[in-house]
Amino acid sequence: MLAIQRGTRYPDRYVIMAGDIDSRNSDGSDGVGDAPGANDNASGMAGVLEAARLLSRYDFPTSVLYVGLSGEEQGLWGGAHLAARAVTEGWDIVGVLSNDMIGNIEGGDGVIENSTFRVFSEPTPVTESDRDRARRRIEGGEVDGVSRQLARYVDRLTETYFTNLDARMIYRLDRFGRGGHHRPFNDAGFPGIRIMETHENYVRQHQDIRVEDGIAYGDVIEGVDFEYAARLTAVNAVVLAGLAWAPPEPDEVRIGGAVQPSTTLQWDAVVDPDLAGYRIWWRDTTAPQWTHSRFIPAGTTQFTLEGMVIDNFLFGVSSVGRDGNESVVVFPSGRLQR
User: Which of 53, 75, 187, 300 suits 194 as a labelling partner, its CA being 20 to 30 A distant?
Assistant: First the structure.
């Protein structure tokens, strides 16, 4: 399943929300037995459909793509097919939000809570070059790849627009030893993350429907908390809208400041009629989220932060629209020549 809400200015630039349209019981290859998949992953697909219903009322400069991917349980086939198509056709993908299980609040660990969700993201792209890895060893950025910046974007917008809901950034590609449909996009070099509930319930997923020793097994609708699923769907809608309304992120962000009491950032100008300017971000090297920023008006593509020693912080740059929507933060990929 694929539906495109074509952008008015950047029709070949995409923000993507995806869910899985498959489900399974105890045997992942069983095509006969009952496998309702109410949470895994009807919840994610319901979120995609609801986000499409909400956002289709608006026009966005960037295209929004709503996707249902099949074959996730058998080998991430749907994601692999679409990612390969994106590479072949040269898609410009801003980010992929893969939603897999967003409706359960009663975990197998005995915890019942509806105030957090998890965002899984890889630290740096697997497609980076040896030169990129060598540069990162000297200049830093071990947790500042494009997918991690997308995760930070989700966290920041959740903090801004939602009460009593916290995005827990998990510094893993996915759950330990497991996989999801954002991975094929990551494998192709695209930014992609997994959004899901905090507390999984293994009794309710990948199980034949049965009662055994007084325990009810199976992924049935009674195990789905619809209010929680709606809130996580709203997070997706806010992120999709923010990215689709924002100007493109700046290209070729460069940084300099070695053996100086200041840090200079430079970037290529973003050509967009709604561009208000840029925002330079910085944080302590151990901080998980960007904590400080300074707005730079449009027309300026280089700025020096006086008194900021480059050794002590990490830096990035985002684009800012006249309506206040911002792009993801771009970590410097090059060094300024003195």
Answer: 53
- The number of residues making up the chain comes to 338
Q: Are 168 and 175 in contact (CB under 8 A)?
A: no
Token pair for residue 8? 């008015």
Considering the chain, what is the average pLDDT of its residues?
Answer: 95
Q: Are 95 and 150 within 8 A, CB to CB?
A: yes
Distances, alpha carbon 115 to alpha carbons 109, 192, 198, in Å: 16, 23, 9
Using 50, 70 and 90 to split pLDDT, how confident is the model at 139? very high
Gap between the Cα atoms of 194 and 179, Å rounded: 10
pLDDT given for residue 72 in this prediction: 84
How much is the CA Rg of the chain, to the nearest whole Å? 21
3-state DSSP of 252-311: CCEEECCCCCEEEEECCCCCCCCEEEEEEEEEECCCCCCCEEEEEECCCCEEEEECCCHH
The yes-or-no verdict on residue 144 having pLDDT over 70 is yes
**pLDDT-wise least confident of 50-59, 87-96, 328-337:** 328-337
Rounded CA-CA distance 195/119 in Å is 5
pLDDT of residue 337: 74
Q: What is the pLDDT of residues 145-192, one digit of tens each?
A: 999 999 999 999 999 999 999 999 999 999 999 999 999 999 999 999
Tokens 């400080």 belong to residue: 292
CA 289/CA 308 separation, integer angstroms: 18
Domains, the chain, in order of start with CATH, read 2-245 (3.40.630.10), 254-335 (2.60.40.10)
* pLDDT score of 338 more than 70: no
Question: 271: burial class by Cβ within 10 Å (0-12, 13-18, 19+)?
Answer: exposed
Per the CB < 8 A criterion, the answer to whether 147 and 186 are in contact is yes
| Residues facing 10 on adjacent strands | 62
Q: What is the DSSP string of 138-152?
A: HH--TT-SHHHHHHH
- Nearest of 297, 290, 244, 256 to residue 275 by alpha carbon: 297
